[in-house]
Amino acid sequence: MATILYCRVSTSEQTSAHQRTMAEATGYKFDAVLCDEGVSGVSTRLVERPEGRRLFDMLREGDTLVVRWVNRLGRNYEDITEVLREFIRRGVIVRTVINSMVFDGTTKDPMQKAARDAVIAFMAANAQAEAEAIKEAQRAGIAHAKAHGEYRGRKPSFTRQQVDKVRDMLAQNRSAIAIANTTGLSRQTVYRIKDDPAAVEAALATWERV
Asked: Is-contact 180 190, C-beta < 8 A?
């Protein structure tokens, strides 16, 4: 029986290392850590994410899945409830680091099942409401910035130093995995720096302007 940590990181302010540190601080020891970086939980379902697909392939009866919070699995009510119920059907125990929630897929007691399913529904609805509130705040902020000529687009998930390092390692024919591990960037970001240098330079130039 394995204990697996799943992380999702969607912004440059978040890190998978932080989520892992928080989980390990509560006493967890992991057999595997999977992380999707630069992926929106609002627009991309868990099964459509690279490491999310691996998670579906890996989890077996008796395994424990640890996530920082249920919104790491999705931000949409249907997606979250579907994912949790699928894992529960497999006999997986899902635990959250925040508030130490437990969704036990091994229980046979009908009252415990009913309580578990009610909590799943409430947590999923709360995650979607939170996501919608964040999106609305972002839209308002963008509209205000555009109205005042201050909008610069989304902040890049990389720095000039990281981009230079990626390019140096690409010139040395290093693999995307090796580059990602060295720079702390996701593989998706490494590929973006490699395949779309003009867009990368434009994003850096916009945010480097004083």
From this structure: yes
Say what the pTM is: 0.61
What is the band of 141 on the pLDDT scale with cuts at 50, 70, 90?
low
Q: How far is CA 49 from the centre of its chain?
A: 9
Distance CA 54, CA 50 (A): 7
Strands across the sheet containing 102-104: 32-37, 3-9, 64-67, 93-96, 102-104
Closest CA to 3 of 25, 39, 28: 28
Separation of alpha carbons 91 and 75, rounded Å: 23
pLDDT score of 210 more than 50? no
Longest dimension (CA), the chain: 62
Rg of the chain on CA atoms, in Å:
19
Using an 8 Å Cβ cutoff, are 163 and 199 in contact?
Answer: no
Residue 44: DSSP 8-state: S
Residue 92 has pLDDT above 90, yes or no: yes
Helical segments of the chain, H only: 16-25, 50-58, 77-89, 110-147, 160-171, 176-183, 187-195, 197-208
Q: Residues 175, 176, 177, CA angle at the centre, nearest 5°?
A: 90
Q: Looking at residue 45, what DSSP letter applies?
A: -
Average per-residue pLDDT for the chain: 82
Domains and CATH numbers, the chain: 3-126 (3.40.50.1390), 160-208 (1.10.10)
